[in-house]
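Two folds, back to back.
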Amino acid sequence: MSHTRRTCPVPPTAAGTVPVDPVHRPLDLPPARGPGDRAVVMVHGFTSGPHSVKDWAHALAERGSRVIVPLLPGHGTCWQDLNRVSAEDLRGAVRAHVDHALTEHRHVVVAGLSMGGALALDAAAHRPVAGVAVVNPALSFGQPLAHAAPLLRWVVASTAPVADDVAAPVSEHAYERTPVGGVAALGRIQRAAVRGLPRITADVVSYWSPQDHVVPPSSQDRLRAGLRAAAFEQVRLERSYHVATMDRDLPLIVEHSAAFVDSVCRKAARR
Protein backbone atom coordinates (compact mmCIF):
# COMPACT_ATOMS: atom_id res chain seq x y z
CA MET A 1 0.00 0.00 0.00
CA SER A 2 3.00 2.33 0.22
CA HIS A 3 3.38 5.10 -2.33
CA THR A 4 6.57 7.13 -2.65
CA ARG A 5 5.80 10.83 -2.92
CA ARG A 6 7.99 13.47 -4.50
CA THR A 7 9.86 15.90 -2.27
CA CYS A 8 10.07 19.65 -2.82
CA PRO A 9 13.44 21.19 -3.59
CA VAL A 10 15.55 22.06 -0.55
CA PRO A 11 15.78 24.83 0.41
CA PRO A 12 12.04 25.32 -0.23
CA THR A 13 11.10 27.38 -3.23
CA ALA A 14 7.76 28.95 -4.09
CA ALA A 15 4.68 26.76 -3.85
CA GLY A 16 3.83 25.19 -7.16
CA THR A 17 7.35 24.14 -8.16
CA VAL A 18 6.31 20.49 -8.00
CA PRO A 19 3.57 19.54 -10.50
CA VAL A 20 0.30 18.16 -9.18
CA ASP A 21 0.31 14.38 -8.96
CA PRO A 22 -2.03 13.22 -11.78
CA VAL A 23 -3.81 10.86 -9.38
CA HIS A 24 -5.01 13.89 -7.40
CA ARG A 25 -6.34 16.08 -10.17
CA PRO A 26 -9.58 17.82 -9.19
CA LEU A 27 -12.87 16.41 -10.42
CA ASP A 28 -15.93 18.09 -11.89
CA LEU A 29 -18.37 15.32 -12.77
CA PRO A 30 -21.64 16.03 -14.59
CA PRO A 31 -24.79 14.23 -13.47
CA ALA A 32 -25.53 11.06 -15.43
CA ARG A 33 -29.24 11.74 -15.16
CA GLY A 34 -31.77 13.99 -13.48
CA PRO A 35 -32.71 17.67 -13.82
CA GLY A 36 -29.21 19.01 -13.12
CA ASP A 37 -30.39 21.32 -10.35
CA ARG A 38 -28.12 19.92 -7.63
CA ALA A 39 -24.42 19.80 -6.90
CA VAL A 40 -22.27 18.14 -4.28
CA VAL A 41 -19.04 19.86 -3.28
CA MET A 42 -16.89 17.05 -1.88
CA VAL A 43 -13.73 17.77 0.12
CA HIS A 44 -10.80 15.39 0.58
CA GLY A 45 -8.75 14.86 3.73
CA PHE A 46 -5.47 16.08 5.21
CA THR A 47 -2.28 15.32 3.19
CA SER A 48 -4.37 13.38 0.64
CA GLY A 49 -6.36 14.47 -2.41
CA PRO A 50 -9.34 13.81 -4.70
CA HIS A 51 -8.21 10.22 -5.31
CA SER A 52 -9.34 9.27 -1.79
CA VAL A 53 -12.97 10.20 -2.50
CA LYS A 54 -13.19 9.67 -6.27
CA ASP A 55 -15.26 6.46 -6.11
CA TRP A 56 -17.81 8.16 -3.85
CA ALA A 57 -17.85 11.17 -6.20
CA HIS A 58 -18.41 9.09 -9.34
CA ALA A 59 -21.19 7.12 -7.64
CA LEU A 60 -23.09 10.26 -6.67
CA ALA A 61 -22.67 11.67 -10.18
CA GLU A 62 -24.13 8.45 -11.59
CA ARG A 63 -27.12 8.97 -9.31
CA GLY A 64 -27.95 12.45 -10.54
CA SER A 65 -25.69 15.06 -8.91
CA ARG A 66 -22.96 17.20 -10.34
CA VAL A 67 -19.99 16.45 -8.09
CA ILE A 68 -17.12 18.89 -7.62
CA VAL A 69 -13.98 17.66 -5.85
CA PRO A 70 -11.40 20.45 -5.60
CA LEU A 71 -7.73 19.89 -4.86
CA LEU A 72 -7.11 21.88 -1.68
CA PRO A 73 -4.18 24.31 -1.38
CA GLY A 74 -0.96 22.63 -0.29
CA HIS A 75 -2.09 19.18 -1.43
CA GLY A 76 -1.28 16.95 -4.38
CA THR A 77 2.34 18.14 -4.71
CA CYS A 78 4.69 17.59 -1.75
CA TRP A 79 4.34 17.86 2.00
CA GLN A 80 6.50 20.99 2.23
CA ASP A 81 3.84 22.93 0.34
CA LEU A 82 1.29 22.19 3.07
CA ASN A 83 3.56 23.84 5.64
CA ARG A 84 3.00 27.10 3.74
CA VAL A 85 -0.81 26.98 3.79
CA SER A 86 -3.02 28.55 6.46
CA ALA A 87 -6.36 27.47 7.88
CA GLU A 88 -7.86 30.54 6.24
CA ASP A 89 -6.51 29.44 2.85
CA LEU A 90 -8.20 26.06 3.20
CA ARG A 91 -11.48 27.38 4.60
CA GLY A 92 -11.63 30.08 1.94
CA ALA A 93 -10.98 27.62 -0.89
CA VAL A 94 -13.90 25.41 0.15
CA ARG A 95 -16.27 28.35 0.58
CA ALA A 96 -15.28 29.66 -2.86
CA HIS A 97 -16.22 26.35 -4.47
CA VAL A 98 -19.51 26.26 -2.56
CA ASP A 99 -20.27 29.85 -3.61
CA HIS A 100 -19.61 29.00 -7.25
CA ALA A 101 -21.83 25.91 -7.06
CA LEU A 102 -24.62 27.99 -5.48
CA THR A 103 -24.56 30.37 -8.47
CA GLU A 104 -25.08 27.47 -10.88
CA HIS A 105 -27.39 25.10 -8.99
CA ARG A 106 -30.58 25.37 -7.03
CA HIS A 107 -29.39 22.98 -4.33
CA VAL A 108 -25.88 22.35 -3.02
CA VAL A 109 -24.79 19.66 -0.58
CA VAL A 110 -21.36 19.75 1.05
CA ALA A 111 -19.54 16.51 1.79
CA GLY A 112 -16.13 15.58 3.08
CA LEU A 113 -13.73 13.05 4.54
CA SER A 114 -11.71 13.69 7.72
CA MET A 115 -10.36 17.27 7.52
CA GLY A 116 -12.65 17.62 4.50
CA GLY A 117 -15.55 16.82 6.80
CA ALA A 118 -14.51 19.61 9.16
CA LEU A 119 -14.22 22.01 6.22
CA ALA A 120 -17.63 20.94 4.90
CA LEU A 121 -19.21 21.61 8.30
CA ASP A 122 -17.42 24.97 8.49
CA ALA A 123 -18.81 25.94 5.09
CA ALA A 124 -22.31 24.80 6.06
CA ALA A 125 -22.24 27.15 9.05
CA HIS A 126 -21.78 30.12 6.69
CA ARG A 127 -23.52 29.15 3.45
CA PRO A 128 -27.16 28.18 2.62
CA VAL A 129 -26.49 24.55 1.73
CA ALA A 130 -29.19 21.88 1.52
CA GLY A 131 -27.33 19.22 3.49
CA VAL A 132 -24.02 17.99 4.89
CA ALA A 133 -22.58 14.46 4.54
CA VAL A 134 -19.31 13.75 6.35
CA VAL A 135 -17.16 10.65 6.75
CA ASN A 136 -15.10 10.40 9.95
CA PRO A 137 -14.90 14.21 10.28
CA ALA A 138 -11.80 15.48 12.09
CA LEU A 139 -13.10 17.74 14.85
CA SER A 140 -10.51 16.62 17.40
CA PHE A 141 -7.01 15.17 17.43
CA GLY A 142 -6.17 11.58 18.28
CA GLN A 143 -2.63 12.48 19.38
CA PRO A 144 -2.31 14.92 22.33
CA LEU A 145 1.00 16.24 20.97
CA ALA A 146 -0.83 17.57 17.92
CA HIS A 147 -2.11 20.45 20.05
CA ALA A 148 1.48 21.66 20.38
CA ALA A 149 1.92 21.91 16.60
CA PRO A 150 1.81 25.75 16.52
CA LEU A 151 5.02 25.77 18.61
CA LEU A 152 6.59 22.55 17.33
CA ARG A 153 6.41 23.71 13.71
CA TRP A 154 9.33 26.05 14.43
CA VAL A 155 11.42 23.15 15.73
CA VAL A 156 10.52 20.25 13.43
CA ALA A 157 9.10 20.46 9.91
CA SER A 158 7.43 17.07 9.67
CA THR A 159 6.60 13.86 11.49
CA ALA A 160 5.58 10.33 10.53
CA PRO A 161 2.73 10.02 7.99
CA VAL A 162 -0.94 9.79 8.92
CA ALA A 163 -2.17 7.89 5.92
CA ASP A 164 -3.66 4.67 4.58
CA ASP A 165 -5.73 3.79 7.62
CA VAL A 166 -7.75 1.42 5.45
CA ALA A 167 -8.81 -2.18 6.08
CA ALA A 168 -8.91 -2.92 2.35
CA PRO A 169 -5.63 -3.36 0.39
CA VAL A 170 -5.61 0.11 -1.24
CA SER A 171 -3.67 3.37 -0.87
CA GLU A 172 -4.99 6.92 -0.70
CA HIS A 173 -1.69 8.26 -2.14
CA ALA A 174 -1.16 10.71 0.72
CA TYR A 175 2.07 12.47 1.62
CA GLU A 176 4.94 10.36 2.99
CA ARG A 177 5.42 12.88 5.83
CA THR A 178 3.01 14.89 7.99
CA PRO A 179 3.83 18.63 7.85
CA VAL A 180 3.70 20.10 11.36
CA GLY A 181 2.64 23.50 10.07
CA GLY A 182 -0.26 21.77 8.33
CA VAL A 183 -1.24 20.13 11.62
CA ALA A 184 -1.33 23.57 13.23
CA ALA A 185 -3.64 24.78 10.45
CA LEU A 186 -5.82 21.71 10.91
CA GLY A 187 -6.20 22.52 14.61
CA ARG A 188 -7.50 25.99 13.71
CA ILE A 189 -9.91 24.45 11.20
CA GLN A 190 -11.22 22.08 13.86
CA ARG A 191 -11.82 24.89 16.35
CA ALA A 192 -13.59 27.03 13.75
CA ALA A 193 -15.77 24.12 12.64
CA VAL A 194 -16.81 23.31 16.21
CA ARG A 195 -17.63 26.96 16.90
CA GLY A 196 -19.84 27.02 13.81
CA LEU A 197 -21.84 23.87 14.52
CA PRO A 198 -24.73 25.66 16.33
CA ARG A 199 -25.26 27.80 13.21
CA ILE A 200 -25.87 24.86 10.87
CA THR A 201 -29.54 24.42 9.97
CA ALA A 202 -29.19 21.94 7.10
CA ASP A 203 -29.57 18.21 7.82
CA VAL A 204 -26.30 16.45 8.69
CA VAL A 205 -25.33 12.80 8.30
CA SER A 206 -22.07 11.45 9.67
CA TYR A 207 -20.60 8.11 8.62
CA TRP A 208 -18.51 6.87 11.52
CA SER A 209 -15.95 4.06 11.75
CA PRO A 210 -15.61 2.72 15.33
CA GLN A 211 -12.26 1.26 14.19
CA ASP A 212 -10.87 4.63 13.08
CA HIS A 213 -7.19 4.80 14.09
CA VAL A 214 -6.72 8.47 13.17
CA VAL A 215 -9.68 10.50 14.45
CA PRO A 216 -10.91 9.71 17.99
CA PRO A 217 -14.57 9.11 18.99
CA SER A 218 -14.56 12.52 20.69
CA SER A 219 -14.94 14.03 17.22
CA GLN A 220 -18.38 12.43 16.87
CA ASP A 221 -19.25 13.56 20.39
CA ARG A 222 -18.39 17.15 19.50
CA LEU A 223 -20.43 16.96 16.33
CA ARG A 224 -23.49 15.59 18.07
CA ALA A 225 -23.28 18.07 20.96
CA GLY A 226 -22.63 21.09 18.74
CA LEU A 227 -25.51 20.64 16.29
CA ARG A 228 -28.41 22.45 17.96
CA ALA A 229 -30.50 23.56 14.97
CA ALA A 230 -29.85 20.71 12.52
CA ALA A 231 -31.29 17.22 12.20
CA PHE A 232 -28.45 14.73 12.78
CA GLU A 233 -28.02 11.10 11.79
CA GLN A 234 -25.05 8.85 12.47
CA VAL A 235 -24.36 5.76 10.35
CA ARG A 236 -21.86 3.24 11.73
CA LEU A 237 -19.26 1.72 9.41
CA GLU A 238 -18.38 -1.55 11.07
CA ARG A 239 -15.99 -2.87 8.39
CA SER A 240 -13.92 0.21 7.64
CA TYR A 241 -11.09 2.23 9.16
CA HIS A 242 -10.54 5.97 8.81
CA VAL A 243 -10.45 6.32 5.01
CA ALA A 244 -13.85 4.68 4.69
CA THR A 245 -14.43 6.21 1.25
CA MET A 246 -11.90 3.65 -0.05
CA ASP A 247 -12.82 0.86 2.31
CA ARG A 248 -15.26 -2.02 2.69
CA ASP A 249 -18.24 0.13 3.66
CA LEU A 250 -18.09 2.31 0.55
CA PRO A 251 -21.25 0.69 -0.92
CA LEU A 252 -23.13 1.62 2.27
CA ILE A 253 -21.85 5.20 2.12
CA VAL A 254 -22.83 5.47 -1.55
CA GLU A 255 -26.36 4.15 -1.20
CA HIS A 256 -27.15 6.03 1.99
CA SER A 257 -25.62 9.34 0.91
CA ALA A 258 -27.35 9.20 -2.50
CA ALA A 259 -30.69 8.83 -0.72
CA PHE A 260 -29.67 11.60 1.70
CA VAL A 261 -28.90 14.00 -1.17
CA ASP A 262 -32.25 13.22 -2.79
CA SER A 263 -34.05 13.76 0.52
CA VAL A 264 -32.46 17.07 1.49
CA CYS A 265 -32.83 18.49 -2.02
CA ARG A 266 -36.55 17.59 -2.07
CA LYS A 267 -36.89 19.13 1.38
CA ALA A 268 -35.15 22.33 0.25
CA ALA A 269 -37.38 22.54 -2.83
CA ARG A 270 -40.46 22.63 -0.60
CA ARG A 271 -39.28 25.64 1.37
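---
second:
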Amino acid sequence: MKTSTFVYDGDCAFCTRCAGFVERRIPTGARVVPWQFADLDALGLTPAECEEAVQWVGADGSRAAGPDAIAKLLGDSGPLWRVAGAGLRLAPARALAWPAYRWVARNRHRLPGGTAACSLPQEARERLYGPAGRPSAGA
Protein backbone atom coordinates (compact mmCIF):
# COMPACT_ATOMS: atom_id res chain seq x y z
CA MET A 1 0.00 0.00 0.00
CA LYS A 2 1.26 3.45 -0.92
CA THR A 3 1.65 6.12 1.72
CA SER A 4 0.75 9.79 1.39
CA THR A 5 3.70 12.19 1.64
CA PHE A 6 3.92 15.74 2.97
CA VAL A 7 7.07 17.49 1.68
CA TYR A 8 8.61 20.61 3.23
CA ASP A 9 11.84 22.62 2.91
CA GLY A 10 14.40 20.99 5.18
CA ASP A 11 16.85 23.87 4.69
CA CYS A 12 14.45 26.22 6.45
CA ALA A 13 14.56 26.18 10.25
CA PHE A 14 11.02 27.58 10.48
CA CYS A 15 9.66 24.89 8.13
CA THR A 16 11.59 22.19 9.99
CA ARG A 17 10.12 23.34 13.33
CA CYS A 18 6.62 23.25 11.84
CA ALA A 19 7.25 19.75 10.46
CA GLY A 20 8.49 18.69 13.89
CA PHE A 21 5.21 19.95 15.37
CA VAL A 22 3.30 17.89 12.83
CA GLU A 23 5.32 14.79 13.68
CA ARG A 24 4.86 15.28 17.45
CA ARG A 25 1.28 16.53 17.65
CA ILE A 26 -0.71 15.60 14.54
CA PRO A 27 -1.47 11.88 14.21
CA THR A 28 -1.16 11.23 10.49
CA GLY A 29 -0.24 8.19 8.46
CA ALA A 30 1.56 10.41 5.96
CA ARG A 31 5.32 10.54 5.69
CA VAL A 32 6.60 14.02 6.58
CA VAL A 33 9.88 14.51 4.75
CA PRO A 34 12.15 17.38 3.68
CA TRP A 35 12.23 17.65 -0.10
CA GLN A 36 16.02 17.47 -0.01
CA PHE A 37 15.74 13.83 1.15
CA ALA A 38 12.65 12.85 -0.84
CA ASP A 39 12.60 10.97 -4.14
CA LEU A 40 11.08 13.89 -6.05
CA ASP A 41 10.91 11.97 -9.33
CA ALA A 42 8.88 9.19 -7.71
CA LEU A 43 6.60 11.79 -6.15
CA GLY A 44 6.23 13.73 -9.41
CA LEU A 45 7.61 16.92 -7.86
CA THR A 46 10.32 19.37 -8.87
CA PRO A 47 12.77 21.23 -6.62
CA ALA A 48 11.20 24.52 -7.76
CA GLU A 49 7.74 23.40 -6.60
CA CYS A 50 9.17 22.33 -3.26
CA GLU A 51 11.07 25.60 -2.76
CA GLU A 52 7.88 27.58 -3.35
CA ALA A 53 5.46 25.70 -1.08
CA VAL A 54 4.91 22.59 0.99
CA GLN A 55 3.59 19.74 -1.12
CA TRP A 56 1.14 16.89 -0.59
CA VAL A 57 1.22 13.74 -2.67
CA GLY A 58 -1.62 11.46 -1.67
CA ALA A 59 -1.47 7.69 -1.70
CA ASP A 60 -4.01 7.96 -4.53
CA GLY A 61 -1.68 10.23 -6.53
CA SER A 62 -3.56 13.45 -5.71
CA ARG A 63 -1.42 16.54 -5.28
CA ALA A 64 -1.77 19.83 -3.45
CA ALA A 65 0.50 22.72 -2.50
CA GLY A 66 0.64 25.38 0.21
CA PRO A 67 -2.42 25.65 2.44
CA ASP A 68 -4.22 23.09 0.27
CA ALA A 69 -1.44 20.62 1.14
CA ILE A 70 -1.81 21.48 4.82
CA ALA A 71 -5.57 20.88 4.56
CA LYS A 72 -4.89 17.45 3.01
CA LEU A 73 -2.42 16.61 5.79
CA LEU A 74 -4.94 17.62 8.45
CA GLY A 75 -7.65 15.65 6.65
CA ASP A 76 -5.44 12.57 6.93
CA SER A 77 -5.12 12.86 10.71
CA GLY A 78 -7.11 12.53 13.93
CA PRO A 79 -10.74 13.66 14.29
CA LEU A 80 -10.12 17.19 15.61
CA TRP A 81 -7.43 17.88 13.05
CA ARG A 82 -9.72 16.56 10.27
CA VAL A 83 -12.27 19.23 11.25
CA ALA A 84 -9.56 21.90 10.93
CA GLY A 85 -8.56 20.49 7.54
CA ALA A 86 -12.18 20.55 6.35
CA GLY A 87 -12.47 24.16 7.48
CA LEU A 88 -9.31 25.09 5.61
CA ARG A 89 -10.83 23.65 2.42
CA LEU A 90 -13.86 25.97 2.59
CA ALA A 91 -13.79 28.77 0.00
CA PRO A 92 -13.63 31.68 2.50
CA ALA A 93 -10.81 30.03 4.44
CA ARG A 94 -8.89 29.23 1.24
CA ALA A 95 -9.31 32.83 0.09
CA LEU A 96 -7.59 33.98 3.28
CA ALA A 97 -5.14 31.08 3.58
CA TRP A 98 -3.32 31.62 0.29
CA PRO A 99 -2.33 35.26 0.89
CA ALA A 100 -1.36 34.38 4.47
CA TYR A 101 0.69 31.40 3.23
CA ARG A 102 2.47 33.56 0.64
CA TRP A 103 3.26 36.15 3.33
CA VAL A 104 4.71 33.45 5.60
CA ALA A 105 6.71 31.96 2.70
CA ARG A 106 8.08 35.39 1.83
CA ASN A 107 8.97 36.18 5.45
CA ARG A 108 9.79 32.77 6.91
CA HIS A 109 13.39 33.80 7.57
CA ARG A 110 12.04 36.49 9.94
CA LEU A 111 9.68 34.21 11.87
CA PRO A 112 10.53 32.44 15.16
CA GLY A 113 12.95 29.64 14.40
CA GLY A 114 13.73 31.12 10.99
CA THR A 115 17.23 31.86 9.76
CA ALA A 116 18.72 33.46 6.66
CA ALA A 117 18.75 29.96 5.13
CA CYS A 118 14.93 30.08 5.22
CA SER A 119 14.78 32.88 2.67
CA LEU A 120 13.50 31.77 -0.72
CA PRO A 121 16.08 32.00 -3.53
CA GLN A 122 15.87 35.31 -5.40
CA GLU A 123 14.61 33.59 -8.57
CA ALA A 124 11.75 31.92 -6.68
CA ARG A 125 10.84 35.18 -4.90
CA GLU A 126 10.68 37.06 -8.20
CA ARG A 127 8.68 34.29 -9.90
CA LEU A 128 6.15 34.28 -7.06
CA TYR A 129 6.08 37.90 -5.97
CA GLY A 130 7.61 39.96 -8.79
CA PRO A 131 10.77 42.05 -8.54
CA ALA A 132 9.35 44.38 -5.87
CA GLY A 133 8.07 41.54 -3.66
CA ARG A 134 4.44 41.89 -4.76
CA PRO A 135 2.57 38.84 -6.03
CA SER A 136 2.89 38.37 -9.77
CA ALA A 137 -0.25 38.17 -11.90
CA GLY A 138 0.06 34.38 -12.26
CA ALA A 139 0.63 33.66 -8.57
